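I am writing to request your help with a piece of structural work I have in hand. What I wish to show you is a protein chain and, alongside it, a tokenised description of its three-dimensional fold. Could you please explain, in whatever detail you think fit, how the structure tokens follow from the sequence? You will find the record immediately after this paragraph.
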Amino acid sequence: MMKLFMNISLLCLFLSASSILGDLQVNFYNTTCPRAESIIRAVVQKHFNKDHSITPALLRMHFHDCFVKGCDASILIDSTKKNKSEKAAGPNLTVRGYNIIDQAKAKLESQCPSTVSCADIIALATRDAVSMAGGLTYNVPTGRRDGLVSDINDVNLPGPSLTVSQALGFFTAKGLALEDMVILLGAHTVGVAHCAFFRDRLFNFQGTGAPDSTMDANLTSRLISICGAKQKSSSLKSDQTGFLDQNTSFIVDNEYYKQIMLGRGVLQIDNELALDSSSASIASGLASDSTGFLHKFADALVKLGNVEVLEGSAGEIRKNCRVFNTPPPSSK
């Protein structure tokens, strides 16, 4: 686990966007659990102080949750003998940060039992981690409820080797547009990728027997020295990793876009954003507007967090984020 002990100048700007998004509302817990957001932030801050890599971890968890059955915390459910949950799916095997959600939930249950949903904890914890890493402190509409289904067979996420048009299909299916996709992929401003997800670009790109010629040669050489030609272990968790942003790897900023415009995108989809005629101008605009990116990224995360949410009497408020309150019929 990578750690960086450094001082980051936080940009604490508050968005002036509408305080209501759909039926979700900013400060939803003001009456029922007034300290909910401060409790979650304190837990996130404690972890961030020790490990800045929790920012990409929580961003990834939030994305992987929302892109399956909507933002319903279904990714948090543990598998049982009778039901393999979303956690068991290949793309989720390296998702981490569950302990952060667990700790926040335990503190909330002691203060306000059966009140704050696990889905809202994910959204709020992600916001806090982003702001601690240099992003905006933006308003998160809350009021989500937790889902009652978590099935490995439902997991179908966009992969790192897709073209722009292929990836866009996943986003439009969730009500998100091309610009939303380009902005949300800005999450790659922090974090790492396992070599398994880009090794082909280094040695045998698309069956050519050669590296991807569109990748910066110096970056190619550096990644080859990190990854080697073959994965040394069959376990993805033990596979080597490379930074997705070569310059400011732990800071939420627009450096990612500057890098991909220079052919320094690590994943193929990163590279494609800068090369595809439909997305190149969006990526270029974000590369030249650091403040604009921070605002647009915050807005896009709010929009992501509203994907197919459960509200009102739908779903439940879990007491333990890893377990349904009442096991569904299929798992009895």
